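Input (structure):
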């Protein structure tokens, strides 16, 4: 929801953990699996540890995304890719 604000922007946190030092990539996709944005790419994380990445509901062009269902992936090198979905509602 856009009323869940951080620095005046709606946001969602993608949370994950690592068991060892690794690199993490988090991406958001629309319902047709088109890439909306890359939240982080090859971010180094020390493990074990808990982490989160913030998405403010905008695409790579800085435009707010439309209401709807979006999918996200959290790729953790050496561990796998994890998928989830998030609902954007104004």
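Output (sequence):
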């Amino acid at each position: 929801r856009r009323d869940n604000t951080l620095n005046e922007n709606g946001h969602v946190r993608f949370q994950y953990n690592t068991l060892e030092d690794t690199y993490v990539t988090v991406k958001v996709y629309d319902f047709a699996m088109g890439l909306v944005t890359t939240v982080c790419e090859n971010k180094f994380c020390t493990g074990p540890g808990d982490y989160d990445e913030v998405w403010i509901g905008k695409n790579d062009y800085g435009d707010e995304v439309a209401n709807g269902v979006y999918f996200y992936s959290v790729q953790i090198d050496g561990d796998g890719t994890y998928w989830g979905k998030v609902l954007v509602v104004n």
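Notes: The chain has a mean pLDDT of 90. The beta strands are 5-6, 9-10, 12-18, 22-29, 35-45, 49-55, 68-76, 80-88.
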